[in-house]
Amino acid sequence: MKIFDLIGIGFGPSNIALAITLEEKKQAGYPTESFFIEKQPSFAWHANMMLDNAHMQVSFLKDLATMRNPASHFTFINYLHEKSRLQDFINLKTFFPSRREFNDYLAWAAGHFDHCCAYGEEVIEVLPEKFSDEISLLRVRSRDKRQIVHERLTRSLVISIGGQPRIPESFAQIKDDPRVFHSNDYLKQIKQHAQARKIAVVGAGQSASEIFMDLHHRSDATQIDLIMRARSIKPSDDSPFVNEIFNTDFTDFVFNTPEQERGRILGEFWHTNYAAPDLVLIEQIYNVFYQQKVADIKRHRFLRRHVVRKAIAQSDGIQFTLHDLNDDREKTSTYDAVVLATGYHRDHYKSLLAPLMPYLKDCSVNRQYRINSAPSFKPAIFLQGACENSHGLSDTLLSVTAVRTDEIAQELMNVINQSNSAQPQRTVTSALA
Predict the structure, then answer these.
(1) In its UniProt record, which GO terms are filed under biological process (predicted)?
(2) What does residue 275 show for φ and ψ, rounded to 5 degrees?
């Protein structure tokens, strides 16, 4: 079987940026053969949150390449130039393009690598290939939409699969009810609930706020309850000194900080990235509730300091048992549809790596995002977007993506050099090890 230097699981922004980095290193005389596997049928980035008037919260300069190589073909500025929109974008006088435009930029970049990406395949497991007393290769097994299983061999692996929707425990029993869905599926699912007259939005972050405003504009007859544990909607702090935590050198600081201190740092700046919408969006929501007071109507409700204790599926809707933390009492409310803007968890990679866990210790990573492994385990496995606890809050964002891929690529080159200096290549059959 063909042996790749690197296989990437997922082909979102992080792995597209890595493909760009490897391509530019190849042009500089450092060739690698890489391949990527993406479960979506074609490139899409948060497709179900492409809301009208939604903009990026990160500067376009923190694109797939600029922070690593401003002269790259793959910068957002060059994308605008190739699309004949550079002058028009300059006239907008903004660092924050629309989410729709940035998605088009990402798709444009991804399109350069169609020859080395398999879309519509979901990786189902990663298996070790053992020779003598060493694990020298990995067998990546994926299944396409026709249920055909594909196998590929690689010397190294990078996992960049984004987050999996976090479903609160109170919704665990009804998570498959079509009237309850995560913000990750919002635009797709809300079409099925055009007749809904009472909708709950659970969450306190950017997604919850955007969805509230989208629902507000969809129909004058729809009532929306915005439900959150917090007392108020807190804006993201993007002031200059605070924003320095997203600088690439801050990654070094966090990683080199004693583990017991990292939690304090993450906690101090937690609201820069979580449960922190843009101030403009908060002002829009405040204005909605103020105009209700002016008109003396009670269409929407802001249920602050409320916790969903229980959610039950009934024939007439989803019934909440809400605990009001303000006066310590419970009440019930029934909804036609429920949107969970409750964030993501980022540990799904562990299930993919289950067959390798005996060699991977505790899945801790080094500074170059490589999982620490046993001496007999030779393949390098890298994580993108799953190292917040060790590398800081910027890990799940675009802020460090371009520079991170350069660090991973350099580590990969070291792995390749070590492999080339080792014993001669062996022939590997298609049988499972």
Answers:
(1) intracellular iron ion homeostasis
(2) 50, 45
Global pTM reads: 0.94
What are the beta bridge partners of residue 151? 141
HEC readout, 365-402:
ECCCCEECCCCCECCEEEECCCCHHHHCHHHHCCCCHH
How confident is the model at residue 422, as a pLDDT? 63
What is the predicted pLDDT for the residue at 82?
98
Which residue type is seen at 393?
Answer: L
| Domains of the chain with bracketed CATH | 3-163+346-420 (3.50.50.60), 166-236+273-340 (3.50.50.60)
- Which run of H or E residues covers position 88? helix 86-92
Residue 152 and residue 1 in contact, taking contact as beta carbons nearer than 8 Å: yes
Query: What letter does residue 233 receive in the DSSP assignment?
Result: P
DSSP per-residue codes, 246-307? GSHHHHHHHHTS-HHHHHHHHHHTGGGTSS---HHHHHHHHHHHHHHHHHT----EEEETEE
pLDDT mean over 272-290: 94
Half-sphere exposure (CA, 13 Å, Cβ side) for 149?
9
User: Starting at the edge strand that comes first in sequence, how are the strands of the sheet with 149-154 ordered?
Assistant: 3-4, 149-154, 134-144, 121-131
The DSSP 8-state label assigned to residue 137 in this structure reads E
Give per-residue pLDDT as tens, 158-185: 999 999 999 999 999 999 999 999 999 9
User: Is residue 114 over pLDDT 60?
Assistant: yes
User: 């809300």: which residue's tokens?
Assistant: 190
Asked whether 346 and 380 are in contact (CB, 8 A), the reply is: no
- Across 419-431, average pLDDT: 52
